[in-house]
Prior knowledge:
- By secondary structure, this protein is mainly α.
- 62% of the residues lie in helices and 10% in strands.
Amino acid sequence: MAINKQDYVAKIATASPLKLVIINFEIIFDYIEESKKNINNEKDFDFNIFKARQFLSELRGSLNMKYEISLQLLNMYNYVDKQLAIFLFSKKLEDLEAGTKVLKTIMSAFEEIEEQEKDKTAIMENTDAIYAGLTYGKNGQLQEFVDIRHNKGFKA
C-alpha cells in the first residue's frame, strides 16, 4: 500500500483544527487512488473504498449542524459517498469522477480558508518534535539524521 502513515502522523501532530479537515481529504484521495490501482484485486480494492468511505464519514460526523453550510456540506458528502458505493460495485472510473470533483472543490475551499486563517495553533500539544536532515558521516557518506524529542499526546 502506497499510503505513508508515518507522513500523516507527523502532519496530524502539528496540525490546526482546519488543517486536520484538509488532511482528512488528502487521506480520502490517497485511498481512492489506491483503489484505482487495485481495481483488479478485489480484496485491496474493497479495503481502499471502505477506508475512503470511513474517512468521509468522519467529515460528516464533524459537521456542526447549527450552521446552514453544514447541511449543504452534508448533502455533498452524502452524494460523494453514494458515488463511492456505485464505484465499489461498477468499478467504472466514470462513476467516481463526479464524486471526486465535488471533493476536490470542497477541499480547495478549505485550503483557501486555511491560508487566511490567523490562528494556526496545533490542536495537539506536548507532541514529539521531529527534526530530520542529512549529514556526512566519518567516511564521507551521506547519512540520514532524525532527532525525536519524546513527548506524547495532549497536554493535560
